Amino acid sequence: MATKAPDIARPGEQTDSQGPTIRIVATETDMTEAERVATPAPTSVALDFADDQVVFELDGLSCFYGGFRAVNEISLEVPKNKITAFIGPSGCGKSTLLRSFNRMNDLIEGAHVTGHVRYHGVDLYADGVDAVEVRRRIGMVFQKPNPFPKSIYDNVAFGPRVAGFRGNMDELVEQSLRRAAIWDEVKDKLKAPGTALSGGQQQRLCIARAIAVEPDVILMDEPCSSLDPIATLKIEELMRELKENFTIVIVTHNMQQAARASDYTAFLTMGEDRGGYLVEMAPTQELFTRPANRLTEDYITGRFG
Amino acid sequence: MERAIDSERPQQNAETTPRPRAEFERTLDAVRDNVLRLGAMVEEALEHAGRALMERDSDLADSVRWEDANVNELQRQINQEITVTIATQAPVARDIRELLALYHAAAELERMGDYAVNIAKLAQQLASEPETPMLRQIPLMEQLCRSQLRAAMRALVDISEVAAREVCARDDEIDHLYSSVYDDSMALMSVAPDRVKQATHMLFAAHHLERLGDRVTNIGEDVVFLATGQVEDLNP
Questions:
Q1: A128 lies in some domain
Q2: pLDDT one-digit tens code per residue, B98-116
Q3: Structure pTM?
Q4: A39 in a domain, yes or no?
């Protein structure tokens, strides 16, 4: 556990980062003995990150939509300044899992979690944690580029303005666009609408928008699924540059993308009750050359299902 | 931090739904068959070269030299198939290990074919010299090399780590025979200076067989890599 827990509670509210009260929801839905037997334990993985290198620590995390358990007792660690990829078949819960990292699932009616998501040691689902502040620190880029119907400049400036940024906005916009590797392509048309850019440029604009509020983590949910191969490779190269300053977690259907771009890969699949669970997490090079688990092997070699 | 891996080939289950990697598996099967065919061709070349050596049969030796072109051609074809498969199918995990192992095994087999040709050439040179009794270790080495080659190809098809390690361990027998050929050749040269040429040819033939045996152990190492993902030197 990290000793320096960032203060992400609403100002004025009493917090105790040494031991926040954990909100356990719906304990009666814990797995039955039969379900436990039906769900194979994840392959034990020799991933042992130093405490100060762990950004997220998931401890028996389950995510529910109403009575349906979409994510099943997942425990894993996400290392700092690395790219961690989640792969797995459709419906295995990887996007749900990703959204649990910044409480995006809170916005879905009937969604709740059990277990813990610790972010630098702080339980994100503890009482008093401000979900808005969580999402500022843990940004997200979505499957389809979704720039605001505003100018390129305003797309980037929007977040900082809302957050009450008082510094030099021009500088912040330029810096964010540069970090997203799109500055040279847009510097002469900052007043043009963001929606006028190509798909790949729009996605990099969305990354610039996410960066502008200076998050710690960027979550990416299939960020390249609507892009052509060249635009995809540019985003992957950008991810490699961004990991110097950010921790990146990406969900992708494109296994080659996970193989090319990530440092660690976690493979999820679904159990007989259709709930997603973790099969194996390993350094990417290892997972793609000698996976430890037969289910991983069958999936990445295309022999799944 | 070694991780145990599950290396068995996936079971072919008779399902009616289309298998997602059917095309890839057909290609892999075809490559595997071609490597086996290459192994059989090299084994035959070695058998003929050995017989040409023992029976002073220049024509048979000639045929080994001609047939080597087919070995080279098949190896080129295997290389091409594997290159295209890697480029178009993006294989990972056991699939990429198997393609790399087959690629390397084919290269080793091609080289073994060259050793068979070298032995055939020595057979022709010996046939043109006055007859000298063949050192008894040489046919033993030739038989051992062929049985080792068969066992290595078997281990490759079965992805049997155990069988591959056995093959590699047995290479010592060939090495011992070779060093005994060396001693006997030297002795022959010193007692019969008119037989220096024959003794040298026999020593070279044994040397080629010894090298061929080492190439067999390289295939054994390929099998261990395919089965475990680990690269090991099994013929130190």
A1: yes
A2: 999 999 999 999 999 999 9
A3: 0.80
A4: no
* ipTM (interface predicted TM): 0.73
Residue-range domain boundaries for chain B: 22-228
For residues A5 and B153, what is the distance between their CA atoms, to the nearest angstrom? 59
How far apart CA A151 and CA A163 sit, in angstroms, is 19
CA A72 from centroid of its chain's CA atoms: 17
Q: Is residue A215 part of a domain?
A: yes
Using DSSP's 3-state secondary structure scheme, residue A220 falls into strand
| Closest-approach residue (CA) in chain A for B19 | A303
Structure tokens at A178: 């540069």
Q: pLDDT digits over B101-154, tens only?
A: 999 999 999 999 999 999 999 999 999 999 888 899 999 999 999 999 999 999
CA distance A69 to A115: 13
Whole-angstrom Cα distance, residue A143 to residue A34?
Answer: 36
Containing structural domain, residue A148 = 49-300
CA distance A93 to chain B (A): 22
Q: Is residue A268 within 8 Å of residue A97, measured between CB atoms?
A: yes
E strand or H helix at B178: helix B161-191
| CA-based nearest residue in chain B for residue A44 | B3
Question: Which CATH fold would you assign to the domain B22-228?
Answer: Methane Monooxygenase Hydroxylase; Chain G, domain 1 (1.20.58)
CATH number at residue A209: 3.40.50.300
**Facing residue for A300 by CB, picked from B4, B6, B93:** B93
Whether B159 contacts B9, CB under 8 Å: yes
State the best of A287, A301, A304 to mutate against chain B, taking most chain B CBs within 10 Å. Answer: A301
Residue B1: list chain A partners with CB under 8 A: 46
